[in-house]
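Q: Structure tokens for this one, please.
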Amino acid sequence: MLTERTPGGRGTAIGDTVPLFIILTSTMLPGSQRMILDIQEILGFLPHRYPFLLIDRIVEFERTKRLVAIKNVTINEPFFQGHFPDYPIMPGVLVVEAMAQAGGIIMMYELTDRLSKLVVFTGIERAKFRRPITPGDQIRIEVEVLSFRPRAGRILGRATVDGKLACEATLTCQVVPRVREARPATPPEPALSEAQIEAEAAAAAAVTGTE
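A: Here is the predicted structure, written as tokens:
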């Protein structure tokens, strides 16, 4: 912890030393290759927005290797209105989605053209849910890279609350263009001639017996 000498003032005397706290954000942690990101920086990497942005802070980040994110769960989450009104539990699929978003940051961080890309699910394996997550819980989401390529990856995700495992899963994902490619136009059907129209009308009349 750093300190500085004060010029004096309320509660301090001239020459006193007081703690000087430094908040690290989007920077290297001292003596390591790990980084932390705040919510504004997360918004720069993920396209998700309320109510589907499911991580609040990155507290550890080693590029192409691992990441630790925090999700603070409150009763104001919109999914608690229906899941369940008298017994609020965070849906397990959203816990897995939070893991995927954490893994997505690892991939998006390496892309220079990230504004034109999305990271999407391609597979979920061995998902297990160990305990419910409820309002007031803080989820610690730990993601470890199992394989990494510029356009695809495989990660192991673990979500814990108070040090106890709540969910784990292995996820695969892929980088795709953010703008969906336009589908080829379907050519219009050729117009029927008068003879074809009369023939179809006669066939219909024969079926119904009302010629």
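A few notes: The two ends are 98 Å apart (CA to CA). The chain has one domain: 25-183.
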